[in-house]
């Protein structure tokens, strides 16, 4: 008998990826997957890629979930706190939503509206000290997809003092699954194929999370929707500090020497998203811009992998005392 | 220590997928991966999705491969026989190429030219008796991608006598990885995105293999290149036999009741390729056409999974006495 | 002053393409574009590709349209008849919907339900005699997208008696715009990219139209949704008649010698959809299958061009006494 | 009889688009299209979208081109100067390549190597004074695709003194046709679909052109290859000047009030590439970043339209005394 886990809100894209990872995980037993309007449906009718998984969606209610050792929450914004409060204290929780990521309640209110539900342990194991913090936590707020891609690229350069935190510029393009599964006209295949479109330009709600996680103090962040189902490519630039900037690639390589999922590529090779598909890996590369002198770091992840479900399983592994990499793939599915 | 395996011709797309599957396989140890022009290159420089796999391509020579318990051959047409002859008899071989699939030498010569190298045990475990034959074989010719998709859809209907073998019509669309990795202008992204293009219309070299494997005696087969990296969707139609045709879905369900990778979907759900991405699964559904009375079966596979590398690993598992499903996924990576 | 035209139901994909074609047409003046829920919106807010077109959607009401010389109807099924009845007799109508295509009321009821609104002149100018019929008609039902692609490939072979009409098998893949603009989950970009999915297998509502237009008496028609915004590729096969079948390519070339938009490609070149993007062209090629002897014809069109809006403008040109090609492009936008 | 034009180097993607535009242009007659290895081939065999255009590629030699009133040069880098020198002085030239864009010979040598061939009149009619300059020029160097997208977004803000020129950061993603038609493995459909990949990070050869054209003095420019055939989306940011920055959208709207192809979108609507497909339009929108205060401008073009062939025809129209918009479309082909 393995460790009993459940997924609340399992009918969306991150939920489906969680179910896939749990089904292939050698130590986890899936005891429940819940949904709202899809409750009562076979999981494989909603997620045809999980054909062979013989399970029916339950309702997202405490009674369905209380029996698990650990529950993944993949719920819409604002629904995590109430459900968490209704579950027994002994049930570990990993929240894939944004509700418990920010420590600054005012920032929450500014970007999301409403009152803040309070911060949980921040689920980015690669940040200094965070692996240990997650391992002892019972409530973890997994990092958002854009914040993963940006923070892994940026945080070591700011921590090492080689990049200036006050004028960071990020342009990050994401596959469409990052926009979720609700049927909106601008997300139709006819609209997104052959198209690149920016959105929430000038004021994206992930800005405070990225600043909190990375240490940036001034951040221009522009997200772009790209014609592919998965993947985030973040181009992160920051001004250098001092006259003789350290080689940024070396700073990153040192920071992630022991991180099994973060790969600073050999010099000359740049990250691209397809190489991370289906994996929990983040690929990084960095250089100094010849003309402007800015440090440029490019990071690539699978937004549903290291950006969501993979990250959540990685946190769960740590919380459960399992090796961090259990049930997760370093390798992507390509081409 | 696991079972020692090697991949000859590992720089192509099927080769890369083999390396990915072997790296995640709990019983196999990869001892060599060879290539031609890429020999000496790090594997991850050629297959960036395998970043973290610390291996350099060797040369495709007997000495590099002779030490393995089993060698996967992912070579261009016509190169398998010579390499096989130069390897010790004790080395098991699974050939992903077409060289040893056909029992009819004349058919080989007609479609491929040159003299036929002789047939090996045909690597489609789901055919009657074939699972046992593969388990005792030392030389297996894994099924071609179009033949997998078509034969799994068709063979049970012909064997059961509910469909006529002499007027089978198949249209099968494939992702571009099926066309290989050599850089040809018509395979450029600029050409294939937004495009569907038929090729080798009226005389495709896979026709004799499909006829041999499925039992069809008259076959119109039209392949189409589709704008996606992976996946085959085959639409297979055949005239019904008799006045009261059996329900084709039931015939298929019975035939594959014990096949772990072939899923006859619940009535009303039709296969689509994305649900099989990265998996070794084949999804099937069937009906009787209201207007023409023809039986219609649709099958979906990942051409690099069940259509190539996954199939090859499935055969290797059987040859090595391992459970058929070891190291292979039933679930796809979607969306 | 040009000829006054209007588009009823202009907020969908076919409607948008009509507006684009009319805006570039040297003889037509757009006097109204109507919509339902989008009425009151600027056209360019709904169709950003028409930025620069300074027009607001009106309501789909007779009063808004009655002033035009010709009205294009791009309405949901079942809405054309009532609107047509409410417009003055002198207003010419081209219906892009299915309401008035079928001459067989029973077939209508079987596939669409409800009672049939009656047939109008069938809008496929390339059928024998049809160009003249359209030129004198005031009510034209433009051909459906799948029917265009299939009929242009098939009708000449059946008319010439070289192919048998009773066992026609068609598999046709379409870009997603053919499924319309209403936001349904299975049409999301995340679902369709990287995917091929069949639908309405065994009983598609376009079967009676294709039979009526092409002369087929037995038809297996399987439509497939393909990961691209536009384009239809139809693979049409039929048994040969007689022992010495005519060369099918020659039959087609002769049939379309005077058709400005139908191109039978030089031997050896096969149609592909991208070459027709944005144009009103249909590309055709044919051969005899080596194994089965079946005749195989492949046709490619832009489903919104020759399959919808282009076809409708071609019909309008004929009805208005203009050269058939006015304002339409033979050339596609590629790559 | 129209004006006689020819295209040198017409077998590539920009060349094909030029042929399409010329074929639809009411005042231009195409008298020759030349190529290197494709000389002697029918144009439609190389560009199937031009089926119906009855023309064979000539050789790229002065004798084939000397008879034209205007020649478009779509040649590889470094080949324009020699051909131009061999043509009669009376032949007007529009070069789509980079050879004659830069006024700074040292910058040319640094990024391209070799000696500089000298600057021609810069072909961006929307820059102040440039429309008149082009109208009287006989030699015009059309703007590069990335430079079009970036300069149109940036130049008015720098000219108006509302943005600082010394810390401009640009991330621009392009469809694959921008990388040309030579068959390279990383441009295969299997590689680019589902993928975003940066390239030439930190030192792109278009940096000096963008600085020269826009007035930027410090520029970080990162190009990204996106999974679509056409389109560029440029995200351009610059620090504000002064404490009360002007509304950047208003500055742009004023600058382009009379430019028929540059559309500053209504507030709230952001550019996306699909809306410009096949057109000569550039869509722009701007805002001030809430967190960083940076000005952000996003521009979208078709890289083969306003970014190459469309721009070249626009310049040719001016040079020939035709209305600037003749034969060019403001509207895109979408979806």
Give the SSE map.
4 copies of one chain form a homotetramer.
Chain A: E1 3-8, H1 13-23, E2 28-35, H2 43-46, E3 58-59, H3 62-65, E4 70-73, H4 80-86, E5 92-95, H5 105-112, E6 121-123, H6 130-135, E7 139-142, H7 145-159, E8 168-174, H8 189-192, E9 197-198, H9 207-214, E10 219-225, E11 232-238, H10 248-255, E12 262-264, E13 282-288, E14 295-301, H11 305-319
Parallel strand pairs in A: 1-2, 1-4, 2-3, 4-5, 5-7, 6-7, 8-10, 12-13
Antiparallel strand pairs in A: 8-11, 9-10, 11-14, 13-14
Helix pairs in contact in A: 1-11, 7-9
Cα gyration radius of chain A (Å): 19 Å
The number of helical runs of chain A is 11
Instruction: Count every beta strand of chain A, where a strand is a DSSP E run of 2 or more residues.
Output: 14
Helical content of chain A (DSSP H or I, runs of 4+): 25-40%
What about the largest sheet of chain A?
A: 7 strands, parallel
Count interface residues per chain for the largest interface.
B-C, 56 and 55 residues
Strand ordering within the main sheet of chain A: 3-2-1-4-5-7-6
Kindly report the oligomeric state of this protein. Answer: homotetramer
Give the overall shape of chain A. Answer: globular
Runs of chain A in which pLDDT lies below 50 for 5 or more consecutive residues are none
Distance separating the two termini of chain A: 36 Å
Query: What structural class do you assign from the helix and strand content of chain A?
Result: alpha/beta
Give me the strand/helix succession of chain A.
Answer: EHEHEHEHEHEHEHEHEHEEHEEEH
Mean pLDDT of chain A: 96
State which percent range the strand residues of chain A make up: 15-25%
């Amino acid at each position: 008998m393995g460790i009993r886990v459940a997924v609340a809100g399992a009918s969306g894209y991150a939920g489906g990826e969680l179910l896939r990872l749990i089904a292939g995980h050698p130590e986890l037993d899936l005891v429940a997957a819940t949904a709202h309007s899809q409750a009562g449906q076979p999981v494989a009718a909603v997620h045809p890629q999980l054909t062979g998984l013989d399970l029916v969606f339950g309702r997202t209610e405490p009674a369905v979930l209380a029996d698990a050792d650990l529950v993944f929450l993949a719920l819409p914004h604002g629904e995590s706190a109430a459900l968490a409060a209704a579950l027994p204290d002994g049930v570990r929780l990993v929240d894939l939503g944004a509700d418990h990521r920010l420590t600054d309640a005012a920032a929450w209110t500014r970007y999301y509206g409403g009152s803040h539900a309070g911060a949980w342990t921040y689920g980015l194991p690669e940040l200094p000290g965070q692996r240990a913090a997650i391992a002892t936590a019972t409530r973890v707020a997994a990092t958002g997809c854009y914040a993963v891609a940006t923070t892994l690229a940026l945080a070591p350069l700011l921590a090492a003092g080689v990049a200036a935190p006050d004028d960071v510029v990020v342009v990050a393009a994401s596959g469409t699954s990052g926009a979720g599964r609700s049927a909106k006209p601008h997300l139709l295949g006819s609209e997104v194929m052959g198209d690149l479109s920016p959105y929430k330009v000038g004021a994206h709600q992930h800005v405070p999370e990225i600043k909190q996680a990375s240490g940036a103090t001034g951040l221009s962040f522009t997200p772009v929707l790209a014609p592919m189902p998965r993947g985030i490519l973040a181009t992160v630039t920051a001004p250098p500090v001092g006259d003789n900037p350290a080689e940024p690639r070396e700073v990153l390589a040192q920071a992630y020497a022991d991180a099994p999922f973060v790969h600073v590529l050999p010099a000359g090779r740049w990250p691209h998203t397809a190489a991370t598909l289906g994996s929990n890996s983040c690929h990084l590369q960095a250089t100094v811009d010849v003309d402007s002198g800015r440090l440029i770091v490019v990071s690539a992840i699978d937004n549903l992998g290291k950006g969501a479900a993979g990250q959540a399983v990685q946190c769960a592994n740590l919380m459960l005392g399992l090796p961090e990499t259990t049930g997760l793939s370093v390798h992507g599915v390509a081409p």
